[in-house]
Design goal:
Blueprint (H helix, E strand, L loop, with lengths): L4 E3 L2 H8 L8 E8 L5 H12 L7 E6 L2 E6 L9 E5 L6 H12 L10 E9 L2 E9 L5 H9 L26 H10 L4 H15 L3 H21 L16 E5 L3 E2 H11 L3 H19 L9 E8 L14 E8 L6 H16 L3 H14 L2 H12 L4 E7 L6 E2 L2 E9 L8 E8 L2 E9 L6 H31 L1
Parallel strand pairs: 5-6, 10-12, 12-15
Antiparallel strand pairs: 1-4, 2-7, 2-14, 3-4, 6-7, 8-16, 9-16, 10-11, 13-14, 15-16
Helix pairs in contact: 1-11, 7-11, 8-9, 8-13, 9-10, 9-13
Pathway: Glycerolipid metabolism; triacylglycerol biosynthesis; Lipid metabolism
Keywords: Acyltransferase, Glycerol metabolism, Lipid biosynthesis, Lipid metabolism, Transferase
Protein name: diacylglycerol O-acyltransferase
Length: about 475
Amino acid sequence: MSAKRVPMTAVDRSWLRMDTPSNPMMISAVLVFDKPIAISRLERIINERFLCFRRFRQRVVDEGDKTYWQDDPLFDIDNHLHRIALPGKAGKAELQALASDLNSTSLDLRHPLWQMHYIDNYQGGCALLIRIHHCIADGISLVRVLLSLTDKTPEPAVKKVSLSRPLKEHTPSIINRLLHRALDTTEAATYQAKLFMQSVREEPNYPLKLASTATGVAVDLLKLGLAPFEPKTGLKNPLSGRKHVAWAEPLDLAEVKACAKALGGTINDTLLCAATGALHRHFKASKEVIPDCGIRVAVPFNLRPLNQPIETLGNQFGLVLVCLPVEIADPVMCFRQVQENMNRLKQSYQAQVTYSLLDLFGRGPDILERRALELLSNKASAVLTNVPGPREPVYLAGSKLVQPMFWVPQSGNIGIGMSIFSYAGTVQFGITVDKAIQADPDAVMGYFRESFEALSHAALAGRQESIKRLAG
């Protein structure tokens, strides 16, 4: 196979084939900076740090049952980097409207599947609106790639990139290549037997662990298949394909940590509880009957080591279905239920199961994937991501990043995506909602803050009461 053309992995092909007019499979970001960025400097950084990944210079070639990445012979950065301005003294509402419009528009398959819009004239600074197709990589990888464009100081030393430096390819490791090659030959059984015997010699109870793991995977696969469909609510209407994007003013991460500590839980438990409370408030405000068994959200679960450098792209994550107890009004009781649900999921193999299913669907006929996607998307009302970002502020071409937001796409008939991203002592919360869904995204943003404040107040009040009892 020529170096200019490589086969797409089955998992990445699954995400490519999930693309529909009502749900384009794009990971999107809005990055707000405190001052304008020189376009020439931005282009140089993109060339040095973004386009060093060959995937961003390649377009998709689909030949029936085979799909390839092929170098775009006419690649031009001007097809991907666009400069526009918002009218007048445009603010958050105008930027949200632009993000909504672009997130409703599919990427052009004739070119590499990414675009950046540089937004002039935004609150004395600028903004970047970025869209990248999910088949290129998963959300966590792409967030790390985008953050690699930034620096820890406003004026870092400029690093020159050698023209002879090879572009990074999405190629499996040597071990993975050898493993796949072994599995594709008649010696596969012998190879697996050798691995098994080696593991037994190194760890005598390995067969029991293997049997236990296999049983766990089978049980989680069965649970996933037998899970009931989501209750019929206004969150599960047929989709229009037009998105409405909104984001909240950030929370103070120190306050979130204090709340989690007072409740004896994690930051993730606290934020999931705040999201649950926001949806509870939405149901109450819309006078809709609240499902008495909660609702489920699909949460991406990273399968790539976070300390591993992003040398290659691609998708390495699974999905877990998390039940949000929206029927519980008391914030502390809601927190305890969320915590219990998350602890149960941490012991499961659901993420590995869904990753394997995506790999299987990507190898099969398109109709099989469509049916399976329809089945799975009926078992969740929304997609929710929670990604940790840098602890200190970062800079792009000398401009400070003041507010970052990221969204992953929704698949099938799911019309809501919620995003939580921690950055420089803050927690950012955003949402994208299909316009056919009966939910006001701006109102849900307000409910999220209200929900967190109610939980924090109850947690800290409870802690003070405990201290008084111990002192007395």
